[in-house]
Design brief:
The chain is an alpha+beta fold. It is built from 14 helices and seven strands. It has helices at residues 8-69, 72-86, 94-98, 119-125, 130-158, 166-178, 182-235, 240-261, 276-310, 320-337, 351-358, 360-377, 401-416, 446-462; strands at 341-348, 383-388, 391-397, 420-421, 427-428, 432-439, 468-470. The chain has a five-stranded mixed sheet, sandwiched between helices. Strands 4-5 form a two-stranded antiparallel ribbon.
């Protein structure tokens, strides 16, 4: 028997309750969508701060590379980043720059994404506070001030381009020191300070926003439970038939609602009936399914973002940032335990010639092949990352100089003996050069070890390529 046949008033009351529960279900789904949107805005805020930090780091890298090598391609890329800043991008288009291959010229301005000259209005519409925008502006201005210091160093190098006199060497060394001394690092820290404040301000604001949305969602769930309990109490006055056909389904719905309130979105209810309560059960199930899908999608998105943030897309090795994080932790362990640690820098010999002769797709295959050989050759405890272009970095824990040289030579030989095969049947033999730096007791800093390994790599290149070179400090004259 349908509930409507018992009493029109009871049917009307039941329909009102069901409608209220359905409305609350919609509100819960809407609040869940708002939570996801708020988390996406929060993530975008972190992306903005990270983009500004990366642009500053890229400027530093290009500036230091230029004063060390005098190579014009670095100043070109430095100026390209500065152009993005002058157009008001605050480093938001730095991904365009990071994807440039150092073997190719930088793209023209009309090949970049359009600048966001109205970025403040866009960020205000996205909910950013004026203080947050002011902190970003401060970081940008301080970064521009640091650029003036870098450009003064450029001027010293440019004044002596092509000159090998002692005065030219002194000018270059002075320029290099300017970009590595404590004052330079202090200026870099001044850039990072407002970025950190920006992240704290955004974190505080978005945390409060999320807390409020979650509180509202919990309130909706509590109201649902109250309505279900009210319906349960009302049917207690019915006959045995009403108890059997209405009370039991309501009890099931109540248990399901409680499970949902605890966050168990996999819970499902089975209402065996032919009245309005069956529809209510299906509505609960649909709500649980929708929320479960949203939660699963959010977790999957978070995992994918974490993977993308740590992995180089082409080689599936650690990217530069993740490698630096892992290497810093490994170096700290070596320092605590007083154990030796080796850092290696390597790149592909004549990589530009491979790209020019076979195409950039072939160059990508060579890098993927090299990554596979590295992973096959190294130990499980060793770290490897692609830090840019065809350049890779290795960290070998608990490894002295002789062991590091043997491992590097084994890797170099494996690469030389395993050519890359293309789909059209062609095979390419290529080689790598490796620079090795060692900290006998883990006391050297990571930046210093990377610089030493990089210097040894240049020595290996200068010595004819396809070889391993241990860092040797310059002779004292």
């Amino acid at each position: 028997m349908n509930i409507a046949t018992i009493s029109t008033s009871r049917v009307f009351s039941s329909l009102l309750l069901i409608s209220a529960l359905g409305l609350l279900t919609g509100q819960i789904l809407a609040s869940q969508a708002q939570i996801i949107a708020a988390e996406e805005r929060r993530f975008r805020s972190f992306q903005i701060a990270e983009a500004l930090r990366r642009s500053s780091d890229e400027l530093t890298r290009m500036a230091r590379s230029y004063v060390i090598t005098g190579d014009n391609q670095f100043i070109q890329r430095y100026l390209a980043i500065m152009d993005l800043r002058r157009r008001g991008d605050l480093g938001l288009n730095i991904d365009d720059y990071a994807s440039w291959d150092l073997t190719r010229p930088p793209p023209r301005a009309d090949q970049l994404r359009p600048s966001s000259s109205d970025w403040r209005q866009q960020m205000r519409r996205a909910g950013f506070a004026e203080r947050e925008l002011s902190l970003l502006q401060t970081a940008w201005q301080r970064s521009s001030e640091l650029a003036e210091l870098e450009q003064r160093a450029f001027a010293q190098v440019e004044a002596y381009l092509g000159d090998v006199s002692p005065a030219a060497r002194a000018a270059r060394e002075n320029a290099i020191n300017q970009l590595h001394d404590l004052n330079y690092h202090a200026e870099k820290a001044r850039i990072m300070a407002p970025i950190a404040e920006f992240l704290q301000a955004v974190d505080k604001r978005t945390s409060a926003e999320l807390s409020e949305l979650q509180r509202t969602q919990r309130l909706f769930l509590q109201v649902q439970i109250v309505l279900a309990l009210g319906l349960f109490l009302g049917v207690l006055l019915f006959t045995f038939y009403v108890r059997r056909k209405v009370l039991l389904p309501l009890r099931q719905l109540m248990q399901h609602a409680q499970a949902l309130s605890r966050g168990d979105y996999s819970s499902r209810t089975e209402v065996v009936s032919h009245n309005e309560l069956a529809l209510l059960g299906r509505t609960f199930n649909q709500m649980a399914e929708a929320i479960e899908r949203d939660v699963a999608a959010r977790r999957q998105l978070q995992q994918e973002l974490e993977t993308l943030a740590c992995t180089d897309f082409l080689t599936q090795l650690s990217n530069r940032r993740h490698f630096i994080d892992l290497a810093s932790a490994a170096l700290a362990r070596s320092r605590r335990n007083g154990l030796a640690l080796a850092v290696c820098m390597l790149d592909v010999d004549h990589f530009k010639a491979i790209n020019d002769q076979f195409g950039h797709a072939a160059g990508d295959l060579v890098l993927q092949h090299l990554a596979a050989v590295i992973q096959h050759t190294l130990r499980e405890v060793d770290l490897c990352g692609r830090i840019g272009g065809e350049e890779f970095a290795l960290l070998l824990p608990e490894t002295a100089a002789d062991e590091a040289l043997r491992a590097s030579e084994r890797l170099r030989t494996s690469v030389a003996n395993s050519p890359v095969s293309f789909e059209d049947g062609r095979r390419v033999h290529y080689s790598i050069s490796i620079g090795v730096a060692v900290s006998p007791d883990g006391s050297l800093g990571l930046d210093r070890l990377l610089n030493q390994a990089d210097a040894a790599l240049y020595q290996a290149k200068a010595g004819g390529r396809n070889r391993v070179k241990l860092y040797e400090p310059p002779a004292v004259t």
